[in-house]
Specification:
The chain is of the alpha+beta class and about 450 residues long. The protein has 2 domains: about 210 residues, Cytochrome Bc1 Complex, Chain A, domain 1 (2-Layer Sandwich); about 190 residues, Cytochrome Bc1 Complex, Chain A, domain 1 (2-Layer Sandwich). About 40% of the residues lie in helices and about 15% in strands. It has a 6-stranded mixed sheet, with helices on both faces. Strands 7-11-8-10-9 form a 5-stranded mixed sheet. Strand 4 and strand 5 form a beta hairpin. The longest helix has 20 residues.
């Protein structure tokens, strides 16, 4: 997304040795719901005089209505176009001039807006967020501007890039059967071009309501003071009816699905492999997250070592559960474990798949060693704690969890739950879910060269 905010945690986090008795880390955190339906979460962190804020709305790629593909993403952009009370640019200028940062991003199950700043900026930022929740500057000019921005983003990131995000856009479209999970989340140009300002305003009124949002604040704050400020700025915004959540469930897949695509920009072929995952927030899903890390988390992963280093049938291997638009713990509907494999032109698709399947089958048959399991789980816990150490990313995680479940407890319990995953659970997950009848494969190969390619444009 254009305004994608990424926080890289570089600090080291000391963790206890992995064991069934690992202690859950839970900083002081509380929650309150306003009469208008806005849920507010506050988590204290007095390590620095700063705060992070996230407001998530229950509208994401899979939740946008038919005929409105790309609207969730379009609205991420529209929310920065100003309001009748604060014109375009004021939002960014107020926050950044005080040493803060702001951004937003859209995912399958939410759209979020995040800010971080010194605590002295809490009041103006809350005012700004409340202001754009009341109404926006619904002008044709703003719509045309952001529609053009979004469409140019599609051209840059999809149409004019090798592989064109086919592992993120095309693969779910082939792996799933229902509109919510299978449609092009970036948006079809025909839907974006057909949108009128009345359509945009209706979309906003349906989904951007306090009763469809969770506001989380983490930092050097006192909960009582935060609740008082939030009530001051947000309590007067009325709740609004929101559309019912669409049915996102999928019928079980019973046969392998294979597709072939050509790519005029790619120089070497690539595979995208997607396995349907179990429902979120289950023990099986947790074992699947660990399996995904064992198989394809960096150069130490099993697939990288087998395909790139040992058998040399691949140039790169990337992927994971809910990849690349999320992490293994934050999704609220069907998702995939995805592998994106770039391979040499002198290697066939079948050769890559043979090496890939052998690696997966070994995990399904033998399971991981205790040493490998502990290594991966320790890294997963370290990554989670590193994110929770940063106020803005903790606020994001808390906001999403409450939006999905009404509770923030899982944010702090997942690291401990990971220590309880056994090698046998990982093996059982792999044997059940990472099978050919549960997967979709797209082989994307370079398009044949044009007959005129390489010909001189004229006499020299």
């Amino acid at each position: 997304m254009k305004r994608l905010f990424s926080v890289l945690a570089t600090c080291a986090v000391l963790l206890p040795a992995i064991s069934a008795s690992a202690q859950e880390w839970k900083p002081p955190t509380s929650m309150k719901k306003l009469p208008n339906g806005l849920t507010v979460v506050v988590s204290e962190d007095h390590s620095a005089p700063t705060f992070g804020i996230c407001i998530s709305y229950g509208i994401g790629f899979r939740l946008e209505p038919e005929g409105r593909t790309g609207f969730a993403h379009l609205f991420e952009h529209m929310m920065f176009e100003g309001t009748p009370n604060s014109q375009k640019g004021i939002f960014d200028r107020v926050i950044e001039s005080g040493g803060g940062a702001t951004n937003g991003d859209t995912r399958y199950d939410y759209t979020e807006y995040i800010e971080t700043a010194p605590v002295s900026a809490l009041d103006p930022i809350l005012w700004l967020e409340a202001d754009r929740l009341k109404t926006l500057d619904f002008s044709t000019k703003n719509l045309e501007n952001q529609r053009n921005v979004v469409e140019e983003e599609v051209r840059v990131n999809v149409m004019n890039q090798p592989y064109g995000l086919f592992f993120a856009i095309d693969l779910p479209g082939k792996a799933f059967d229902t509109y919510p999970n299978a449609h092009n989340f970036y948006g079809d140009f025909k839907d974006l071009d057909a949108a009128k300002i009345e359509d945009v305003q209706k979309f906003y009124e349906q989904y951007y309501a306090p009763n469809n949002a969770v506001l989380a604040i983490v930092g050097d704050v006192k909960p009582s003071e935060v609740y008082e400020k939030v009530e001051k700025y947000f309590a007067g915004i009325p709740s609004r009816p929101t559309p019912p959540r669409p049915a996102v469930e999928e019928k079980p897949q019973t046969a392998e699905r294979r597709e072939k695509e050509t790519d005029k920009l790619a120089r070497v072929p690539a595979l995208a492999i997607g396995y349907r995952m179990p429902p979120p927030r289950t023990a099986t899903a947790l074992a699947g997250a660990v399996a995904g890390e064992l198989l394809q988390n960096g150069q130490a992963s099993r697939l990288y070592q087998a395909l790139v280093k040992e058998k040399q049938v691949a140039l790169s291997v990337d992927g994971g559960v809910n990849w690349p638009l999320g992490n293994p713990f934050e999704y609220n509907g069907p998702t995939l474990m995805t592998s994106f494999i770039v391979y040499p032109p002198n290697v066939t698709e079948d050769q890559v798949l043979a090496a890939y399947d052998a690696t997966v089958n070994e995990l399904a048959t033998k399971g991981p060693s205790q040493q490998d399991l502990e290594r991966v789980v320790t890294k997963m816990r370290s990554d989670l704690y590193a994110q929770l150490e940063i106020p803005i990313t903790r606020a994001s995680a808390l906001s999403h969890a409450v939006l999905f479940t009404g509770s923030f407890d899982e944010v702090f319990s997942i690291p401990d739950e990971l220590t309880k995953v056994t090698a046998e659970q990982v093996r059982e997950f792999t044997a059940k879910y990472l099978v050919s009848t549960n997967r979709t494969i797209i082989n994307r190969v370079p398009a044949p060269a044009s007959p005129d390619a390489g010909k001189s444009g004229g006499a020299q």
